[in-house]
Amino acid sequence: MAPSLLERVRTRLIAGQGEATPAHVAAALREEGVLLGDSAVLELVEVLRRELLGAGRLDPLLRLPGITDVLVNAPDSVWIDEGSGLIRTDITFTGEDEVRRLAQRLAASAGRRLDEAAPFVDARLANGARLHAIIPPLSSDGTAISIRIPRASGFTLQELGESGAVTSVMGEFLADLIDSRLSFVISGGTGAGKTTVLGALLSRIGDSERLVLVEDSAELTPHCGHVVRMQARTANVEGAGVITMRDLVRQSLRMRPDRLCIGEVRGAEVVELLTALNTGHEGGCGTVHANSADDVPARLEALALMAGLDRMAVHSLICAGLDCVVHVERLPSGQRVVQGIYALERGADARATVRPIAVTSNGITRVDDYADGFLARLSRHRVESR
Description:
alpha/beta, 13 helices, Rossmann fold, elongated, 6-stranded antiparallel β-sheet, Beta-Lactamase
């Protein structure tokens, strides 16, 4: 069917507030002077339902097993990631207008707007997928859509080991982090697997511990018996109703958490997290963007400085409250791996620094001589402090 006729049928259905049923579609076609057989009408019904309610041409991609990302760069440039790198698909749109309409419809389904006054949107769709869209002139080549699809259920440490993301030695160290109630952050670049590793570690927490989970966009699905999940809220179309991560972290401290987890530390909430870890909330954790474990103290410092903390105060809170950094990487092959575990310590200049405990390279984990004494000391401290 010609795109122009499809658009006219769609317009008639919307104007008449009719659902995309066979009867309504057939009536709209008759008004356009077009007659189709039953099979063609049913096929058109499915197309219109995808266009009006679903993700349009992207629907088949979103249903693919193992899909993690769907990216639209241009009407003829649609890409997917199934966990091993980006692959170009043969899906094409009729033009920029169709891509923009799809982006606006997806934004509207999440209660957001996308137009000249609000030219970008970051929202969570009803199916749990995370939507980002941006329109011209901010995106020079046309409307760009990014959809990240969360896994239906999180990985366990054993599954990470079977996939090659974690060596057996590294898996034992990661298990010790949770069992010893150490406080840690998982660092890495975008798409490196920070959330996946964090979810696997949280799934090891016993049902007797109350986990309070705060996220900007709900992605974690830990296998925990006692978990309270909270999600930040952006402004509505009137620009009101914002609930920030910092607001939720403050609330979480009044909810009797045994462990506090921030899905991603990216703003002023770092102050509340570091404060909590220094006031008896052991076993806290989160993720942070950083190119290497060495960069984590500087990254946390930058976030805290923007929130108004003094530089030396930040480093004191880091050294006193955080025990470890778990760094993850995405290899050129697309494989995501836990690259290393690093202890956070106070350096000679009183600033936080990292020291390797266990580092994996080419599938082999090298354990530093410092590791046994470090974990034993912290494990004893955690047991005695309970």
